[in-house]
Amino acid sequence: MLSQGSRLQLATPVQQDPAPEPELAAALCDVSAPRHTGLLADQQGASVAFRAVHAEWGTVFAHLPDLGCERSWEAVWKTRPPAPLACDECGHAMYAKTSRTGLRFFAHAPGAPACALALESVAHHLLKLELANAARDAGAHAELEARGPDSTWRADVLATDPAGTWATALEAQLAPITDADITARTEKMRADGVTSIWFSDRPCPPWLGAVPSVRLERPEGAKHLTIAEGLVKFTGRSWSAVPASLTQLLTWAFTRRIVTHTPRTPLRYPQRSLATVWTAPQYITAETAHLEEEERLRRVREARMAALQREKEKKREKIRARNAVTRAKALAEATAAEQSARTQPPGRLWQVARVFRLGVDQALAKLANEHGVIATVGFSTGDPRYAGGVPLVDEHGVPAAIFDPDPGRVRGEAFLLLAGLLLIFPSKADQRRFENASNIKKKHRPIDGYHTEFVETPEAGATRAWGVRSCTCATPRLVAKIQNAEYPAEPSDQMAPAAALFRAQCRACGGRYENPWRRTGNTPINQASRPET
Fold first, then answer.
1. What is the pLDDT of residues 295-342, one digit of tens each?
2. Where on the phi/psi map is residue 160: left (φ > 0), alpha (ψ -120 to 50), or beta?
3. How far is residue 172's CA from residue 131's CA, in Å, rounded to a whole number?
4. Whole-number Cα distances in Å, 490 to 335, 388, 476
5. Angle subtended at Cα 393 by Cα 389 and Cα 396, rounded to the nearest 5 degrees
């Protein structure tokens, strides 16, 4: 599976006790939370490495006390002549160095080409070293820069089971990378039977969760790295972060006490929602049980709501049945009133509605074109049962619709009739005004609402423009416009017949008068003011 070569064992594996799952759960809960400070780099901007190839001893490692070959550091450091060390990436000469803080490493000699090892940052080298040490402490074999078959991939640290049953690549990813690239690299290793865990100590790596990964941090004053993001537990309704050390995470991951999981419930704020997290299997089971219970409760709620809706619909059907009787009676009475009115010549209100009521012709055309009803203006125009509207009746005198009823006059017989007929308004604004008024007066609102439509009349905007603003004067000075003439008017306790068809305007403020009014004179104001000749 892996390339041939000496496998470095960083330490003798520690025998792991097979602790039961409850013990793991307790461990996940009891670890204290860390604070982020980032990884410490001993060298800034230098080209460093922790391994090199000795001409006689093979691969040597600067971070191991015996260099991995039972030799001391002094055997390669400041020797004369220099120790025969070379880079296993580019073959260029290397020499041993020690930093001010005592960190031991290898550096390329001057004139080195740009090889992958030389381009790695100190922070990346140090994170790989910490990963290798943590893998050792977790009881695994660890090999730095291990290559895959045919060199198709190379792991920063390859952790393996001493018994050879598993291999996990520990990847230190500090440079920017896309989700697609990191996923492709993970799949390459997976194809060779090697799982992987990706690590970063950056504050907000954008790829976190795209693959099995965690974000690391070092609490202030701490010697070891801790898990900041990626390790979670289910807390009944959501996921929350679990603080743990890097060694603990690797110990649990190597022994399968934690596994990767795609959360189906949200992570608790301020944790980001990650596509992949690490958690113990019992928490996955707990999430599944929670979702199943939520689904059960949802079905119970839906069944209860459906039963209530069915009961409500039964009550509504009973109301509709009663309404059908009362509406049929109201329509029959309106038809009788129309038949009685037809025994007399058309009244004054019929003539005014037929000639001057804006939108009547469009309403009649709408009935014919869209509803197939040939209708005319009813002779019973002005009857209170129409609520100030104009009845549009078919050839048999049966009301088919009512044009522009006044919402303030919908009561009693008018409500019973209008609730079962089509109501047509001269504009969308008039339709909305009527519907808004009916929503306020719940008593006079049908159980299924009114059946309303509207027509647009070119003259409606110009003619009604003066009535957009309502009169609020304490002592209004009213005038009524009838047949292009102005007649004197005054406020009244009851709406007069003329008020059902026309509108009054206040000369003091120019607003439309919405309350009951009556005409006080039969002579137009402009004619009454003319001097006699």
1. 999 999 999 999 999 999 999 999 999 999 999 999 999 999 999 999
2. beta
3. 8
4. 34, 19, 8
5. 155
Length of the chain as a residue count: 533
Q: What is the pLDDT of residue 472?
A: 76
279's CB contacts (< 8 A; 6+ apart) are 231, 232, 233, 234, 239, 242, 258, 259, 261
Max CA pair span of the chain: 139
Letter for the amino acid at 297? L
CB burial of residue 148 (10 Å; 0-12, 13-18, 19+): buried
* pLDDT band at 149; cut points 50, 70, 90: confident
249-287 tens-digit pLDDT: 999 999 999 999 999 998 887 888 899 999 999 999 999
Residue 158: which of 136, 191, 183 has the closest Cα? 136
209 contacts 236 by C-beta, under 8 angstroms: no
Q: Distance of alpha carbon 400 from its chain centroid, rounded?
A: 48
**Own/partner long-range contacts of 4-10 (Cβ < 8 Å, ≥24 apart):** 5/59, 6/58, 6/59, 7/141, 7/143, 7/160, 8/59, 8/61, 8/64, 8/68, 8/141, 8/142, 8/143, 8/144, 9/141, 9/142, 9/162, 10/64, 10/132, 10/133, 10/135, 10/136, 10/141, 10/142
Exposure b/e, 318-341, CB count within 10 A at least 16 = b? eeeeebeeebeebbeebbebbeeb
Which element (helix H / strand E) includes 99? none
Write phi, then psi, for 467 (nearest 5 degrees): -100, 10
Angstrom distance (rounded) from CA 111 to CA 117 = 15
